[in-house]
Amino acid sequence: MRISSTTTYCTFHRDLKIKSLTIFTLLILFGYPTLHAQKAPFFAPADSLDKVRFYSALGIGLSSFTATSIGLYNSWYKNFDQSKFHLFNDWKEWRGMDKMGHAYTSYNLCNIGYQGARWTGISKKGGLVIAGIGSTVIQTTIEIMDGHSSKWGFSLGDVAFNTIGTGLFIAQQSFWDDQKFRIKVSSSRKDYQDQILLSQNGIESSISDRIDQLYGESTMERFLKDYNAQTIWVSANIKSIIPSAPVPKWLNLAFGFSGENLLGGFDNQWFIADEKYVAPENIYPRYHQFILSFDADLNKIKTKNHFVNSLLALLNSFKLPAPAIEYNSLKEWKFYLIYRS
Length: 341
Prior knowledge:
The chain is an alpha+beta fold. The chain contains ten helices and ten strands.
């Protein structure tokens, strides 16, 4: 299986571009009200529809979506052959980490859309409609472009996890007017063994070469790309679930999902030119990790400084380092004084 030149490899790097562009868009959407944080009346949600805010937010949202879609098409999809609309089965790719990433992205897109709508003075119901439609349109646009690309296709798995992320936000806001469960991410740069590998023809390469090829070399690239260094979390606020619990209102219990030794989409073999390389299974077994840890809901921490509040809201999509317990599919238990990835 030529991982470096097949659908698996292309889909992976296309998803990385999507993730990078999505995070950039989120930063823009969060940053806009932050610029005005020194003016409390402007920053606080309006009591009724404020047309200036509404059209400003609408313009930023549409321009960000348009720029992201056009940029993604021209920088990525345009470089590959187009085809008739078709499906692509990627359920078993990357040990589910890409699917969890879709849930994370759609959940946080929905969160941003809702907060932006409420800031303009739109009602709770209207805000949820706008957030749900916005998140769905953004993610579905990408899936449709996938469906017309010969290198990959429309993924029902991606759509399912997009729906889970969006649905989780909307359901909680509808019934509780609160996010008792948040989807977060954590990632830290991972060190890999520089093990030498030989192809079937005796041509030398290494694990570090494969890592650089897949996940990049810079710290930012690794943060965005490295599935082995990422964990997707469902972070639950203890006080919101159990009001009588004797804990701070910001304290969360987080349940994490991650993968290890992912050196390819479906398996740990790949081609460089016509040379096939295989990572030894006894040294690099592919497995799942399930982590239990503490976290903080930064939205529960309110200050008088609106800039600080908006910064905390931005950081709340990331899981904070904390002690943790791991159980993995190799049937191993591990304990961390501080779990970062």
